[in-house]
Amino acid sequence: MLNKFFLTVGFSGLSPKAPGTVGSFISLIIAMGLLHFISITTLFLLSILISVVAVKQIDIYEKEVGVHDGKEIVIDELAGMWIAMSVAGVTTENWTMGIIAFVFFRIFDIWKPSIIGKIDRDIKGGWGVMGDDIVAGVFAGLSTSLVYFLIF
Predict the structure, then answer these.
(1) Is 1 within a domain?
(2) Which structural domain range is residue 130 located in?
(3) How many domains would you assign to the chain?
(4) Per-position pLDDT tens, the chain of length 152
(5) pTM for the model
(6) 98: in domain
(7) Mind giving me the DSSP string for the chain?
(8) Is residue 82 situated within a structural domain?
């Protein structure tokens, strides 16, 4: 039960509609709350720690349920969102940048261009589930920084 709570980010991945988007949005809210107490660098390090733990937990979960990358698993969205926010340098005073990071992350996570799609297709197990979202987070963070720089 604790494993499912972790992998579904507080059961947000059990949403009947758009569990990845719901998980990403909940991850944004959690991060904005955490940033009142920790630095953006610490958020980045937490995303790496969570990713490493998630890989093992996803491997265990997939063996139990017999499905690769089930829609209810959204811990990868949390890691990707937090990486996007970290790369972009989101702060608690700047929700706009957080929303832009959310939009770019969802675009890259759904569209899966270039290496993101290759990781999603070719790598199995926990690393496959986490890998595409980690890279999507990097791209989303860079895109957020660029757009924010150009517009604001």
Answers:
(1) no
(2) 18-151
(3) 1
(4) 899 999 999 999 999 999 999 999 999 999 999 999 999 999 999 999 999 999 999 999 999 999 999 999 999 999 999 999 999 999 999 999 999 999 999 999 999 999 999 999 999 999 999 999 999 999 999 999 999 999 98
(5) 0.96
(6) yes
(7) -HHHHHHTTTTGGG-SS-HHHHHHHHHHHHHHHHTTTS-HHHHHHHHHHHHHHHHHHHHHHHHHH--SS-TT--HHHHHHHHHHHHHHT--TT-HHHHHHHHHHHHHHHHH--HHHHHHHHH--HHHHHHHHHHHHHHHHHHHHHHHHHHH-
(8) yes
